[in-house]
Design brief:
- The complex is a heterodimer.
- Chain A is an alpha/beta fold.
- Chain A is globular, with a radius of gyration of 24 Å.
- Chain B is α/β, with parallel strands linked by helices.
- Chain B has 3 domains: 184 residues, FAD/NAD(P)-binding domain (3-Layer(bba) Sandwich), CATH 3.50.50; 114 residues, FAD/NAD(P)-binding domain; 109 residues, FAD/NAD-linked reductase, C-terminal dimerisation domain (Enolase-like, domain 1, 2-Layer Sandwich), CATH 3.30.390.
- Helix content of chain B is 30%, strand content 24%.
- In chain B, strands 1, 2, 3, 4, 5, 6 and 16 form a 7-stranded mixed beta sheet that branches.
- In chain B, strand 20 and strand 21 form a beta hairpin.
- The mean pLDDT of chain B is 95.
């Protein structure tokens, strides 16, 4: 403990990464400070502790996605003999939002209680800003400043949705994922601008809840993901009723009697339509403005605003670290931020020597037909190893329960295998419960399992996951 | 005796194992024949090609389990904002079974097609061994023909057993052979047994709205991890299933309305109650008694199961046996399939690989599903002693369960059993939703010798139930398995 400073470690940002650092440091008896503050969205939306994931990310997203899926089961309910089911019944938005917010606030409260009652943690609901390499300025909602000092500082400020800078009044006329999960009025006829997983997940569950949804895509879907899988996701969403406008972006958005008149150019022609809601999901930017980074000397990528940190999470200032979404080159995921935070504290205080690894991280996109993946996309594998050195197994299949109500569409699995050593370098699964199916395979890929190892294991029957250990045909 | 056809490979039994072996052998160009004949149940139930799994096992079971779970979701629907969900809506048994049976019939047809395409000759006849290379085939009118084959495969599977202490029991009860084809709803049901069949059926019948009781002689799920078995029981009790423990039926009488008056003793005291249906699920026996095995010299054990070497040979050199009818094999479809394929590869494909029965993953589709790989806690302690193992445990609540103020907050559990020295995982137990889907991937990792550290180093997918398996830190005997927060 260095008596020169008030805190052993001060964390700016109480999200997945930040709270983990606070928890791990506190468990080792360190004096920990945390500043977490939500700058309201352009519409004034704010939320409590926990960061993006529990408030405006993973958690509410999954609850809404599940609600849409639960609604779809009405078709199976009738086919499996349940009476009195109205397959066309509507959904009440406010019931869902209230329920989602009830859960979110439950998490906020649990976090707050823990922060306030745990010895060794001092929590400031204030905006943190670097004053110098050991001093943090804390600004409250009325603009009053205070200062604290710390031996180590960890920046874990995450990111916020980006806005295009060429559409006038865009911030007033559109909403983002910051606003969607607490929207007081049902979104109605919605235009989703973007092709990120955020865009597709939101468009997916909004369609499932019964809204007229259109997705406007500049070029490709799910950039960075396997494109065969991305297109299949898009096809499935079309079967569900989501409309796509491909190859364009909005030129203008205007308020017309409370609705949104959106204009765009397609094939040289101007087109337009009126929507109740325009949801922007074109990307996220690191929330590093006004953090005092420049004057303290923390280097950032000028274009993206992301902090540059080495593999030990150290910035250009010797005692200042950065983890999570705000750092260049990191995966924007909760579990990676958490593990990164844990390993950082181990290295700082417990002789740990592991740095975070970002390869072969399993993820899932919670689109109406879910997509779980680990390892290389087909494009990345072909680029790195050459198509002739790969064997790509594929399988189309139908989950057992889809037979009840004759669901349309097919599920699909793909394994990318290196010919020379039979190692499975890419796992792709498009079907129900993708995340639950994929997780175990995350371990398998990390173990550098061979295709033969997958074939040797006995399937669990009946399941969808067993399809993966029975793949015998290749492209 | 006239031989009507000669084969390289003749399969007796068109279930999971038999069909897989036949199709695989045909790929190598072998002349393959297959005989499948379903002896009607005592209640007269019959079914088509495909064996137990497709007709009276895994498939209809899972469909009905799904139907019950779907019904449960109505409550979540209401909480999540779906309007006009009639929570009081009753279940229409006939509608469900019609849909289930349509699917099964599609599969029966698909299998016939597959055999046709692969040029496997299919006989819908009852087979008997005439000589070690000659099979007698009897059709349903009693017509007989004989076929000769270089190799014979017995894959006749098993059928439900009946308790022996109640006179004419076969007329008064149904089994899983009959349940999925019951023309009318089972109504108030008593299930006798504590096997996974008993619990799975009891689970979905209760979920579909029927008054369900399960009568258990001693423990539930013998052979499975008993802590998990106990939690499965707790969950079923919470769901409304009634358990009659430490009891066996001593008499069943049909009353004038064709209902069943069941009498049983429990702790020395006699009880009785009337049920619409009694479903017996006390075990299965190998379907080998009419095969003429003794005459040919094929050794069987006292339960009728055929005794085989590890490469599936019986005591007669050219006769093989796989699947449920063989001693010591797990009674599962995927193991029978794989075993059949590997056998065909060895007989006709010049390959050597044998079936490996270590770390076979399974899932029980009780209302709260249970997926497991490897050693149960009891087996691990028995084999390795408590000192050599460490058990990690966790009680968790799936995110989606928060939609309802569910009283099942402590229902879901994960147990990971590792070897202290090597940190190798030797047992994984997951009790919670989507168990089958979750456990499959881990089976490969465990078979490869994965350690706890390798699990922990794998990043989770958030939010899922499965990621809980990668973040276990509480040790049984030292730490509380519950944790909070997102």
């Amino acid at each position: 403990m260095n008596p020169q400073y008030q805190y052993d470690i001060f964390v700016i940002g109480g999200g997945s990464g930040g709270l983990t650092v606070v928890d791990e440091a506190q468990m080792l008896g360190k004096r920990v400070g945390l500043a977490d503050y939500i700058k309201p969205s352009p519409h004034g939306t704010q939320w409590g502790t926990g960061g993006t994931c529990p408030n405006v990310g993973c958690i509410p997203k999954k609850l809404m996605h599940m609600t849409a899926l639960i609604g779809e089961i009405r078709h199976e309910l009738t086919a499996t003999g349940w009476q009195g089911i109205d397959p066309h019944s509507n959904h009440d938005w406010n019931t869902l939002v209230n329920e989602v917010q009830r859960q979110v606030k439950g998490i906020n409260k649990a976090n707050d209680d823990w922060l306030v009652t745990t010895n060794g943690i001092t929590y400031y609901n204030k905006l943190g800003k670097l004053k110098d390499d050991h001093t943090i300025e804390l600004i409250d909602k009325d603009g009053q400043s205070g200062f604290v000092t710390a031996e180590y500082i960890v920046i874990a400020v995450g990111s916020r949705p980006s806005f295009p800078n060429d559409i006038p009044n865009v911030k007033q006329l559109t909403i983002t994922s910051d606003d969607l999960f607490s929207l007081k009025k049902a979104p109605g006829k919605t235009l989703v601008v973007g092709a990120s997983y955020v865009a597709l997940e939101c468009a997916g569950f909004l369609t499932g809840l019964g809204y007229d949804v259109t997705v406007m895509v500049r070029s490709i879907l799910l950039r960075g993901f396997d494109q065969e899988m991305a297109e299949r996701i898009g096809e499935f969403m079309k079967i569900q009723g989501t409309k796509f406008i491909r190859g364009t972006i909005p030129n203008s958005i205007e308020d017309v009697e409370g609705k949104r008149l959106v204009k765009w150019l397609l094939n040289g022609q101007e087109q337009s339509d009126v929507y109740d809601t325009v949801l922007l999901a074109i990307g996220r930017s690191a929330d590093t403005q006004n953090l005092g980074l420049e004057q303290v000397g923390v280097q950032t990528n000028k274009e993206s605003g992301k902090i540059i940190a080495n593999e030990s999470d150290l910035t250009s200032v010797p005692n200042i670290f950065a983890i999570g979404d705000c750092v260049q080159g990191r995966l924007e995921l909760t579990p990676t931020a958490i593990m990164c935070g844990k390993r950082l504290i181990k290295r700082l205080y417990s002789n740990g020597n592991q740095v975070m690894e970002y390869s072969d991280v399993s993820t899932t996109v919670f689109t109406p037909l879910e997509y779980g993946c680990v390892g290389y996309s087909e494009e990345a594998a072909v680029k790195k190893f050459g198509r002739e050195n790969l064997k790509i197994f594929t399988s189309e299949f139908t989950p057992l329960f889809w037979n009840f109500a004759n669901r349309k569409g097919t599920c699909y699995a793909k394994l990318i295998v290196k010919k020379d050593d039979d190692i499975v370098i890419g796992f792709h699964y498009l079907g129900p419960d993708a995340a639950e199916v994929t997780q175990g395979f995350g371990v398998v890929i990390k173990l550098k399992a061979k295709k033969n190892d997958l074939d040797n294991v006995v399937g669990i029957h009946p399941s969808v996951a067993e399809e993966i250990v029975q793949m015998q045909t290749w492209k | 005796m006239q031989i009507t056809q000669e084969f390289d490979f003749f399969v007796i039994g068109g279930g999971s194992g038999g069909l897989a072996a036949a199709k695989q052998a045909a790929i190598y160009g072998a002349r393959v024949g297959l005989a499948d004949f379903v002896k009607p149940s005592p209640q007269g139930t019959k079914w088509g090609l495909g064996g137990t799994c497709v007709n009276v096992g895994c498939i209809p079971k899972k469909l009905m389990h799904f139907a019950a779970l779907a019904g449960e979701l109505r409550k979540d629907q209401v909480e999540a904002g779906w309007i006009h969900t009639n929570l009081q809506g009753k279940h229409d048994w006939i509608k469900m079974t019609e849909n289930v049976q349509n699917h099964i019939k599609k599969l029966n047809f698909q299998y016939k097609n597959q055999l046709n395409k692969k040029e496997v000759k299919y006989y819908n006849k009852l087979a008997e061994l005439e000589k070690s290379n000659i099979v007698k085939l009897i059709d349903k009118e009693g017509g007989i023909e004989y076929v000769k084959s270089k190799f014979i495969l017995i894959a006749v599977g098993g059928r439900p057993t009946y308790p022996e202490n109640i006179p004419e029991i076969e007329k008064k009860v149904i089994t899983s052979d009959d349940l999925f084809w019951l023309p009318n709803s089972p109504g108030k049901t008593l299930i006798v047994g504590a096997s996974y069949v008993a619990l799975e059926c009891g689970g979905f019948l209760n979920g579909l709205g029927y008054d369900t009781s399960i009568m258990v002689r001693s423990i539930l799920l013998r052979g499975f991890d008993q802590q998990i078995a106990s939690k499965i029981e707790d969950y079923m009790l919470e769901s409304g299933v009634k358990f009659i423990k430490e009891a066996i039926p001593i008499n069943i009488e049909l009353n004038e309305n064709n209902k069943k008056l069941v009498t049983w003793t429990q702790k020395g005291v006699q009880h009785s109650e009337i049920f619409d249906t009694v479903l017996v699920a006390t075990g299965r026996k190998s379907d080998t008694n009419k095969l003429n095995l003794e005459k040919i010299g094929i050794k069987i054990n006292k339960n009728g199961k055929i005794i085989c070497t590890i490469d599936d040979r019986t005591s007669i050199p050219n006769i093989y046996a796989i699947g449920d009818c063989v001693e010591g094999r797990p009674e599962l479809t995927p193991t029978a399939i794989k075993c059949g394929q590997l056998l065909a590869n060895r007989l006709f494909g010049g390959q050597k690989k044998m079936m490996c029965y270590q770390f076979v993953p399974t899932t029980i589709y009780t209302p709260l599903e249970y997926g497991c790989i490897g050693y149960s806690e009891e087996e691990a302690i028995n084999k390795f002693t408590q000192n050599e193992i460490i058990i990690y445990h966790s009680i968790f609540k799936p995110l989606e369960w928060n939609l309802l103020d569910s009283h099942y907050a402590q229902a879901c559990m994960i147990k990971l059993i590792i070897m202290k020295q090597t940190r190798r995982i030797i047992g994984l137990h997951y009790l919670g939703p989507n168990a089958g889907e979750i456990v499959q991937g881990y089976a490969i990792a465990i078979k490869l010798g994965a350690t706890k550290e390798q699990f922990d180093a794998t990043i989770g997918i958030h939010p899922t139930c499965s990621e809980e398996i990668l973040t276990l830190s509480a040790i049984k005997g030292i730490d509380n398995p519950q944790k909070e927060g997102c």
